[in-house]
Design a protein that fits this description.
208 residues, Spore Coat Polysaccharide Biosynthesis Protein SpsA, Chain A, 8 strands
Length: 208
C-alpha cells in the first residue's frame, strides 16, 4: 500500500481532485490518504471525509513536522509527499514505481513534476524507521524535499521516474527576502555538513 501524505487547508475541491487522480491512475497498489486539516478551516465541512483515511488536528503547519507526523500515522509500506494541488497524470504509475524501486526498499524516489525536481518524494517504511523521520527536522518548507533528495544521492539510492508525471496547479515559490527561505538554506548546509553522513551510515548499517 502507498500512503499519500497531504496537509491541506481551504481547498476541498483541489484535495478531492488530487485524491481522485491517484485513485484513477493507480492499478495494483492500494492507496491510503493521510491528511492534516486545520479544525478552524472555514471550508472543513466541504471536505469529503470518505476520501480521508485519517484526519489530524493541525500541528506545526508550515514546518516539516507535519510531514513527519503524517508519516508516523500512515500504515502503507511506501510514503509519498503530495500537496492538495497535485494531479497524478500517468495511468499505471504504481507499476512503474514498483518495477524501478530496489528490492531492499532503501531509496528516495520521485516522479516527474516541476522541472524534474524532487517535489513529491517517495520512501519506504523501512527507510522511515531507520531514519526516524520522513523529512529531516528543522526545516520550514522549501529545502525539506531537497534534503531528502540529497540524502538519497549521498547513499547512491535515487530512483527518478521521468515517465510518471504529477502536475501542480500552484507552487510554493521562494519569496525574496523571506527570512524562512534563508533559514532553510542555512539549515540545509548545516544538515549536509553534519547530519547527512550520520543518517546515511545508519541506513548502510541496516543494509549490511
Amino acid at each position: 500500500m502507498i500512503s499519500l501524505l497531504c496537509p491541506t487547508r481551504g481547498r476541498p475541491k483541489e484535495f478531492d481532485r488530487m485524491v481522485q487522480s491517484f485513485y484513477s491512475c493507480t492499478v495494483h497498489q492500494a492507496i491510503e490518504v493521510v491528511c492534516m486539516t486545520d479544525l478552524k478551516d472555514p471550508y472543513l465541512t466541504k471536505y469529503n471525509r470518505n476520501l480521508m483515511s485519517i484526519e489530524v488536528d493541525q500541528i506545526g503547519v508550515g514546518s516539516v513536522e507535519m510531514w513527519n507526523r503524517l508519516a508516523s500515522l500512515a500504515t502503507g509500506e511506501y510514503l509519498m509527499m503530495v500537496n492538495d494541488d497535485n494531479i497524478m497524470n500517468t495511468y499505471g504509475w504504481d507499476e512503474v514505481f514498483m518495477a524501478q524501486k530496489p528490492n531492499d526498499d532503501i531509496f528516495v524516489a520521485w516522479p516527474n513534476g516541476q522541472g524534474a525536481q524532487c517535489v513529491n518524494p517517495i520512501i519506504s517504511r523501512r527507510l522511515f524507521k531507520a531514519l526516524d523521520y520522513f523529512i529531516p527536522r528543522g526545516f520550514n518548507w522549501w529545502y525539506a524535499d531537497t534534503a531528502l533528495h540529497s540524502l538519497g544521492a549521498y547513499m547512491g539510492r535515487l530512483v527518478y521516474m521521468p515517465n510518471v508525471t504529477v502536475l501542480s496547479t500552484e507552487h510554493k515559490e521562494q519569496v525574496k527576502g523571506d527570512i524562512r527561505v534563508n533559514q532553510d538554506i542555512s539549515r540545509f548546509h548545516e544538515w549536509k555538513k553534519i547530519e547527512r553522513k550520520r543518517d546515511a551510515e545508519r541506513v548502510w548499517a541496516l543494509m549490511s
